[in-house]
Amino acid sequence: MLERLRNFFARPRANFLAFLLCALILPSVAVLLVAVAGMVSQERAMEAAVSSYVQDLAESMSYHLSTDADVWTFSMLSDFTRFPFFSWGPSIPGWVALIDNSGRVIIASPGAMNIAAIWRSDLPVGKAVKIADKQGAQFTLAVYPVKRAGGGYVVAAVSWTQLLGGLVGVVRVWPFLLMVIALSSFVAIKLLWSRLVTPLRSLVAEIDNMTLGKDVPESIGNNAVAEIESVHSALRRFAQAAVERDNLRNRYVRDIVQAQERERVDMAREIHDGPLQDITALVQQLHMTLDDENHSDVARIKLTETIAKSVVRELRSLCDELAPPWMDLGLVEALTELAERLSQVYDIQVSADFDIDDDSREIEIENEKSLSLLRIVQEAVSNAVRHGEASEVHILLGRKGDKITLNITDNGNGFDAEKINHETLRVEGHRGLASMTERMSLMGGDLKIESMPGHGTEIKASFELGGRS
Amino acid sequence: MAIRILLADDHPLTRSGIAEFVRREPTFELVAEAEDGTEAWELIQKLNPDVALLDIRMPDMSGVEVAQKIKAAGYGTAIVMLTSYDAQQYVMASLKAGAKGFVLKTVSPKELTTAINTVARGGLYLDPEVASFMGSDDFSPEPLSAREREVLLLAAKGLSSKEVARRLFISERTVQTHLASIYDKLGSRNKTEALLLALKYGVVTLEELLED
Predict the structure, then answer these.
(1) Are B114 and B108 in contact (CB under 8 A)?
(2) Which pTM was predicted?
(3) Which one of A198, B76, B88, B97 is at 20 to 30 Å from A341 when CA atoms are compared?
């Protein structure tokens, strides 16, 4: 407990909210206490004032009646309103009456007739008491005996309800209001705690424990205030985006790995079916030549030469496919070569044209980017032939200042570019369109495909030299 | 007098194979062997051979760069590119660098002899495997028109159709039509083939192609 307190004060910033709430609670408690104390002391003061008043009134009247026989006699005969006591009326905040020993009212100030109803014979004499009548109305009442023949009592009373009602009301209202204020501030603090501080803390805990890209926070419930809820839902969206991004990346890596594996398998098959078979045949022929008694089997040696040459051709084309060596001739030459090769491979017309804004007739560009452009062309031509059955493909590579543009148009069947679902294609293992776009975006450029059934396809790619690589 | 030959190739096995071919021929004299482009260039400056057999891909300096230096220095050494690459753009790059011959390393000794003899005489020799489209020697193409020759030469220098059109004050469409007609007449499938065939048939000369 002590430890917790020490922690609490050692880290004022961390416990700022708690401090703030304390700062709100303490005055409320103070107000509440003051209000209660005020109410109690007010009550006491009023009771004391009223008691001494009725006591004084009753005592002085009983004294007058006891000593002044004339007054008494006279008053019995004529109207007693001449006595100031009885004629003051409303200016006295109370009533006074003379009753006989049996409780019958002999004389009374205006409105005091009902004193008989609350007087009881067992009331203490000479001392103010607070009693209630049958209706529950409160009175402070003092009884003094009259010391003369015939006896009787003077009863003075003040009705809390009637005479002091307004005053008591006003006096009692402000501490009551203060109490209400204090209590409502407690409620407010309680709500603040449960709707703001607690959700805020759980939000912080959630962020602390969250693994980005893996967890998505659950719904916070409807206890929190709208602002926290919206922060929370922003967090949710953020976490969801992170998860999606991670999924995408994982999928991308998987795709790359798959593509690599596929390429290896293809390459292995090509080496196995081509050069390996040929060299095996070559070795066999050489063995036979060596075994031959007369070492003049020219025909066989010629055969080995033919086989060896075919191995060279196969290996050369394998190299060209893996990484075209003519890349180092520059982009213009390389693209021209590629166009001519593709033209031969697919037996269609593939032309490459260049639109360069100066007389250099060459585009200075990193080998990597150059290769990317060539791969895009390769993919585009392959698509044009395989899917579009195109017979002509035209490639236009342009440079204007730092901007490089690549346009590839074909006269194939075209397709509805709007309806292409890249995700479906990807899942089916067709990464062609996606990889073209990805290559371009890796260079900081973009690639658009425009096509309509029956109108061929146009691929427009562009990027800035010196951009992201 | 024997033809004095320099051989530059960074691959020892291929170099020794070709060196043996050359030594066997009595009319050839192998004056030096180089392992890279820099050494080749130094030896050429020192020995001034009649023919240099240069590998294209070599460390330090490529065969094409050595050829450019020879051409720039104005030496009389005839250059034959000796390579594993069959890309026609290498042929074009070599010719532009001043080479007169282009042969693959798988060439037969007989063909290599022919190539060396041809370039030594000032002729042009292209490996039949690279220029397989060139067909037999007795084919004589339909002559090109003067405008078609102009279009072909400009296109060969690397000008785009648009630029060719601008230079000749004709439309791009007309340039395309001319090119199609040129391909048709020479029996080629593309610009590079057309140019190589034009060189072979003497429709254009290497000098015309190289002048700017």
Answers:
(1) no
(2) 0.59
(3) B97
